[in-house]
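> forwarded from #structure-qc
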């Protein structure tokens, strides 16, 4: 009995470690390749992350992040005419 419960315990303890290791790798990859699109819930426009308007959006507190231009379009957003995201 004791041996069995120890094995179960050891198995349970190794699970979070494995999960943490797995989630570490994709995160780093996402950062490198992901194109962050910043939307504004007020103006309904979306921008590249380096657009001058992003600072204003953050000040206004209306920032909405999208993983891609397609996602922003799906949400009914329109591209900013200054930074032309997706071009
Ligand atoms: Zn812009």
């Amino acid at each position: 009995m004791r041996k069995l419960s120890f094995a179960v315990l050891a198995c349970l303890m190794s699970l979070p470690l494995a999960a943490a290791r797995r989630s570490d790798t994709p995160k780093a990859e996402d950062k490198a390749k992901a194109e962050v699109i910043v939307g504004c819930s007020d103006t309904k426009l979306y921008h590249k992350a380096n657009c001058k308007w992003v600072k204003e959006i953050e000040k206004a507190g209306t920032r909405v992040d999208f993983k891609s231009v397609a996602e922003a379009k799906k949400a009914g957003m329109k591209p900013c005419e200054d930074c032309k995201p997706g071009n």
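QC bot note: The mean pLDDT is 81. The radius of gyration is 21 Å.
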